[in-house]
Amino acid sequence: MSSNPSAERPIERTSPRRRRAGGWVRTLGAVAAVLIVVVAGYAVVQYLGSRSSRTVLNVLSYDLFNGGCGTAPALQAVLAPFESAHDVEIDFTCPAGSTLVSTLLAEKSSPRADLVIGLDEVTTPAAEANGLLVPYLSPALAHVDPNITHELSADGGATPYEWGYLGIDYNTSFVRAGGQTPANLSFPAISANLSLARNLVVEDPATDITGEEFLLWEIEFYETVLHQDWQGWWQSVHAALQYAPDWGTAFDADFDGSGGPAPLVVSYTTDPAYAASYNQSGQYNSTVSEWNGTLYGWQTVYGIGIVAGTQHLALDQALVDWFLGGTVQSALPTNEWEYPANRTIAVPPVFAANPDPTNFVPLDDRTTPAEIYANLPTYLDEWQTIENSAG
Fold first, then answer.
1. What distance in Å separates the CA atoms of residue 65 and residue 92, rounded to the nearest whole number?
2. What are phi and psi of 25, to 5 degrees?
3. Helical H runs in 107-208?
4. What is the DSSP pairing of strand 159-171 with strand 339-340?
5. Is the bond preceding 10 in cis, omega lying within 30 degrees of 0?
6. What is the pLDDT of residues 280-339, one digit of tens each?
7. How confident is the model over 39-85, as pLDDT tens digits?
8. CA 184, CA 195: separation in Å to the nearest integer?
9. Which is it for strands 299-307 and 200-203: parallel, antiparallel or unpaired?
10. Residue 189 CB neighbours (<10 A)
């Protein structure tokens, strides 16, 4: 584990189906036609027209952004109106084998990117601490919950465009086999009942950001809700838990050789809506951590940031504003399976399958992005020590 968290930490998740560090990945085909209708032919024609004389905005993102580093037709159709209106060309770079933060650090003295898309509540403070972002407070933030904004960045280093919650998913086969539902499950319940722990697949915090976020969720729950040492939970369950290297592997795990999904898996509370949209209502349900009648969750927030050293500040700011506008925000729920940051945008009816996030207490509020950045390396080292003790 690196002693320099800014160089190697935090990592970005890489999932074959969605949200790798805040992603536009999952289920693009169904929405592509809708987006093309939104831009009504005009967009595609403009996008495919000659762009050689335009100013180029270089965007750094993750390699599965919108189905292929910004190349998917659905994204191109939405980009076209902005490009035409501002006479610009938007080009994506998605580095393989490295993180957004480490790429920005490597290029700090001579940055190639104007903007970065996909920073989250874990990676944004790392980027800010290293002077990699230009703070910008978009006028469109008037439509964003201030709590979400502050959980990502206190000074506008990155602007949120979507948010959600981690959850523990449980499937119908688990409920049938166990004769019970783990709805409103708590961390202490898992450590007190190792049969639950043995059925839980967790992303490895050392290799996946979903695992890092789950670790932070557990730490904040124990330290700020129970006022107990967070390490005790891991010491109780570490020998029973099933680990996966990333979210995609965990979500699609063939847990017992039957070809079915894991009985319990750390994922996202919007998974029920995803299942319902594909006529699999009830296949997945999701819960956060309950204690004394209150539901405590970890809120994930994804943002777009302006890279320090950009030569196109005004255009960068315009693109940030555009990300909070209706064209982009309306596309998020059934592309990203996240909630749009702009609270004036309605989510589709299928989101009623999800547990209501307004009932959750976000434990992110108990700390600051700067504290996350400062404490995460120590947390990871201490967690690794516990895991190593398993032998």
1. 9
2. -115, -45
3. 123-129, 146-152, 172-178, 187-192, 194-198
4. antiparallel
5. yes
6. 877 788 999 999 999 999 999 999 999 999 999 999 999 999 999 998 898 889 878 899
7. 333 333 343 444 557 899 999 987 655 555 766 676 777 788 999 99
8. 17
9. unpaired
10. 15
- Cα–Cα dist 298/37, whole Å: 36
**Nearest CA among 198, 208, 131, 125 for reference residue 166:** 208
- Backbone phi, then psi, for 10, in 5-degree steps? -80, 160
- State residue 113's pLDDT score: 97
Give the start-end residues of each E strand in the chain.
Answer: 55-60, 88-93, 115-120, 133-134, 159-171, 200-203, 242-244, 264-268, 284-287, 289-291, 294-297, 299-307, 339-340, 360-362
Q: Specify the residue for token string 């995460």.
A: 376
Q: pTM of the predicted model, to two decimals?
A: 0.85
The per-residue pLDDT for range 19-44, each reduced to its tens digit, is 443 333 333 233 333 333 333 333 33
The domains of the chain, with CATH numbers, are 5-164+300-355 (3.40.190.10), 165-298+371-388 (3.40.190.10)
